[in-house]
Amino acid sequence: MSLTKPLVTDALRAVAGAAPGTNLVSGHHLLWVSACDTYASIKLQYPAPDKAGFDALAARAHAAVLSAATPLGTRVDSFIVEFVNESGAVVHSRRFGGPTGTPQPEPPAPPQAAQQAGHAPIPGLRPQSPGLPGVARIIAVGAGKGGVGKSTVAVNLAVGLARQGQSVGLLDADIYGPSLPTMLGLDDQEVVVHDGLLQPFLAHGARCMTMGKLVPADKPLIWRGPMAHGAFKQLTEQTRWGELDTLVIDLPPGTGDVSLTMAQMLRLTGAIVVCTPQRVAQDDASRAIQMFRQLGVEILGVVENMSTFVGDDGKEYDIFGKGGAQHMAQRMGVPFLGAIPITMSLRQNSDAGDPTANFTGTGRAERALAQALGAMIRQVESQVALASLKQAQTTPKLTIS
Ligand code: ADP
Question: Which atom of ligand 1 is nearest to the CA of 344?
Fold first, then answer.
């Protein structure tokens, strides 16, 4: 059984509120609950005297949720408590769980001065990519053209890695057509800025940021080169990512300004190119591969999306053909990371903002999808390990012609 909003809310009735005889719910301290799978986060407004007071209350809330969930056989892998002031700004946060399974305080915010100086590393953090303190690996997901499933692959990769216990960030850098608000179900969530930095949204176990939450949904996003550069830089550098094992970046389709900015700003672990099996899509994807090569970005490999259709009867229908992207990967001398079938539930879950359901479906087609996603993620992990080894032996170079 998964964690649900009612389960978490009811559990918090066992935690005393500030006024005598009240609890966190009846005392109106609980402002917001998000629960999904084995992850939950809450927002509290509470008059604690200091950080130790906030931490003690967060620990009581965590213990209450654990004691409600455990008898039901429900795990609580990650529980985040954010304390907000009257204007909604986060004043303190506490995280329980995550990769090490131990309570983890939020990492320190990058000092403004260090940011302006080009993100000087903060002492005590793990090895990091220049440009993003505390982020161990950065994977960009690109495609030669739109509509091939690039965002779908980026979202499911991030959610899949988070489900394995990694601390994962997901940046929707598709500033021209951001799709993460829909795909992750962020509609009800509000943008919060604290200490001059954007708080990432916690969705499906990943910390996410998207231009789609910063501008009205019906406003056309027309960016000229320098503006696109600025928008990407702002989203990347002014989000409080904290310490991440992996940051997944969903790039705009094609070859353009954002990819160039990204390659200049960040030391990427590598890029994934998503492609459908048709010949026209392969040609575009080859151009994307060439672009990453020119930018000095390691190619982790190619994912073939919409590879085949698996019907409810479990039969396979090759609507767009099959294997085209794999042949293209061979021709271009890059790894093939796997094929994702066209699945009705994948489209439905994306529209419903529930990518977690892609990993938990029980029907035949859903199981095939979960297997395909799992296999792709394992391949990505192997290529990331190889790329990290290579990177440790070389210095980055950027060649633009
Ligand atoms: P892109 O980011 O390349 O523009 P998206 O990831 O937004 O493409 O996908 C485009 C549409 O196709 C979305 O509605 C998405 O849900 C759907 N889609 C993508 N891959 C699949 C798939 N394998 N099966 C079913 N629908 C898919």
Answer: 25
